[in-house]
Amino acid sequence: MNDSRESETERVTRQLRDEILDGVRPPGERLVERELAAALDVSRVPVREALKALVSEGLVTPRPRSWSVVRTFTDSDIADLTEVRTAFEPLTFRLAAERRTREGLDRLRKTLDEQLVAARAKDAVVARRKAADFHELVTELASNELLIEIERPLRSRMRWLLTQHDDLIAVAGQHLELYRAIANRDVDEAERLAGEHLAQSQVLFRFSRGMD
Q: Is-contact 181 190, C-beta < 8 A?
């Protein structure tokens, strides 16, 4: 349920972000203020502010005057994101296994269960959203404020990267193994599995994009 205090700009930003990450608005699609305002039944001001926010998040590329386009991630962009993920993710899972709380573990389990249900039902949108939620929750469980500060401005781009797969069951299964390591406070196993998950994710990513 959405927060009733959510502003119009926040609502428009959230909706456009979800549509981009879910693939409803594909790379290169034009985002014209006037057209979006009419479609979303709002003035152009919240649309303008939403587009600025999405530019700062790295999901939208600005164009002259009053329109933008959904960002097309290049191979170089993807390589950069993967390098950052490779540097931080094993540490994040290790810290999560060491510092997780009962409440945090319960939230992680709930998200994982929702991902598993969606994956088995072949609901790609929900399964991919929950997969990204799983990683964000693990960052919270790591309980390192600097790590969270580093992750926050990259969150939308990382969510995009984490949704670029088609084998929903495989990813959910990997997350189940990672959850068990965190639940058991097995820090070495969590770090090892995180490394394997990264390698397997890159294989699934190349396969889903038809890359050699």
A: yes
pLDDT in 10s for each residue of the chain, 212 residues: 455 578 999 999 999 999 999 999 999 999 999 999 999 999 999 999 999 999 999 999 998 877 899 999 999 999 999 999 999 999 999 999 999 999 999 999 999 999 999 999 999 999 999 999 999 999 999 999 999 999 999 999 999 998 888 899 999 999 999 999 999 999 999 999 999 999 888 776 655 555 55
Indicate the pTM of the whole model: 0.90
Distance CA 204, CA 90 (A): 19
Cα dihedral: 158, 81, 165, 170 (round 10)? -90
CA distance 208 to 125: 15
The answer to whether the CB of 28 falls within 8 A of the CB of 41 is: no
Two tokens, residue 152: 């926050």
Question: How far from 61 is each of 3, 53, 76, CA to CA, in Å?
Answer: 28, 11, 16
